[in-house]
Write a structure and sequence with these properties.
The complex is a heterodimer. Chain A is mainly beta. Chain A has no helices and eleven strands. In chain A, a hairpin with a 2-residue loop joins strand 6 and strand 7. Chain B is mainly β. In chain B, strands 2, 4, 5, 6, 9, 10 and 11 form a seven-stranded mixed beta sheet that branches. Chain B has a four-stranded antiparallel beta sheet with strand order 1-3-8-7, with no helix packed on it. The chains are: A mainly beta, B mainly beta. Chains A and B meet through strand 4, strand 5, strand 9 and strand 10 of A and strand 4, strand 5 and strand 10 of B.
């Protein structure tokens, strides 16, 4: 089954810095989604970007999608300690539900 | 608005015991899902229900059964628990029209942490 793979697996930055996470996938998609998971909690949807979009913004989040390279990136600007979490990309595959990657663990140090 | 509610939050079982994880959503969503999350493995789909009255296998269905009791509720049953089923289980729902949900946002519960000894 198609699956997004996030890179890096773990990322540690100082508060105020920008954090960039990448996602690669294998086959054509109609959209790609990013989710966040705080420790011990469920996943929360952050943003969805459609295959005909190249960039999308939501607050301090910026997502890009390059369908020619089958990749996406999530940028969190001016990070805060509260952004510490795991971030997952997810892609649908035909008629099947979302397939998730293994995630990037982000640590923001105050 | 409660969203997706899972019970129980924690459970310890002995090998061979059975149990049912319950999930309910109050968003009038058509589609519901069960995922398991293991360290280093991300989330893997166990079963899903595209609409009331239908269920389909996901990536890792062996050892599990599901019931879509009505539009609100989707339960996951372990008939004979094994240590390999120690995991965190997440229920999710989406609006999803028709079979599967190709583009919808998923709403997750807080998870059920299961340990099988």
């Amino acid at each position: 089954s198609q699956q997004g793979e996030e890179d890096p697996q773990a990322l540690s930055i100082q508060e105020g810095e920008n954090a960039t996470m990448n996602c690669s996938y294998k086959t054509s998609i109609n959209n790609l989604q990013w989710y966040r998971q705080n420790s011990g909690r469920g996943l929360v949807h952050l943003i969805l970007i459609r295959s005909n979009e190249r960039e999308k913004h939501s607050g301090r989040l910026r997502v890009t999608l390059d369908t020619s390279k089958k990749s996406s990136s999530l940028l969190i600007t001016a990070s805060r300690a509260a952004d510490t979490a795991s971030y997952f990309c997810a892609t649908p595959s035909g008629n099947t539900p979302l397939v998730f990657g293994k995630g990037t663990r982000l640590s923001v140090i105050a | 608005n409660a969203g997706v509610t899972q019970t129980p939050k924690f459970q310890v079982l002995k090998t061979g015991q059975s149990m049912t994880l319950q999930c309910a959503q109050d968003m009038n969503h058509n589609s519901m899902y069960w995922y398991r999350q293991d360290p280093g493995m991300g989330l893997r789909l166990i079963y899903y229900s595209a609409s009331e009255g239908t269920t389909d296998k996901g990536e890792v269905p062996n050892g599990y059964n599901v019931s879509r009791l009505n539009k609100r509720e989707f339960s996951l049953r372990l008939e004979s628990a094994a240590p390999s089923q120690t995991s965190v289980y997440f229920c999710a729902s989406s609006e999803g029209a028709g079979r599967g949900s190709r583009s919808g946002e998923l709403f997750f519960g807080e998870g059920s942490r299961l340990t099988v000894l």
